[in-house]
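Format notes (please read before filing issues)

Several people have asked whether sequences and structure tokens are stored in separate files. They are not. Every record keeps both together, in the order shown below: the sequence lines, then the token lines. Line labels are part of the format and must not be stripped during preprocessing.
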Amino acid sequence: MQARAALLPAIALVAACGPMSVERAEDACFERARLAAHPRGLVATGTGTGGAKSKLELAVSSDWLQGKDPAALYNTCVYQKSGRMPRRPLYDRPDWKG
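Then the structure lines:
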């Protein structure tokens, strides 16, 4: 009986590693494709009672450094995660600003 109880978490873990829906895969892969198009960043400055403040954030992906095509990266990522090709190409998505 204890052996069966020990197997339940392992079975649940393996089931969680299965393919996800194509919709979820598209959402998960969209950010990776967006970062492959070009680096993203934020620069902020301001003053307040505590004095001057500044902030700098920069996101650079290895995909961008390697010059990978965001659309090809998106297609491959969605296929790997869901086992299906995206429902629409990356460049046809209304939220793509590449």
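For reference, the curators noted about this record: Residues 19-92 form one domain. DSSP finds four helices and two strands in the chain.
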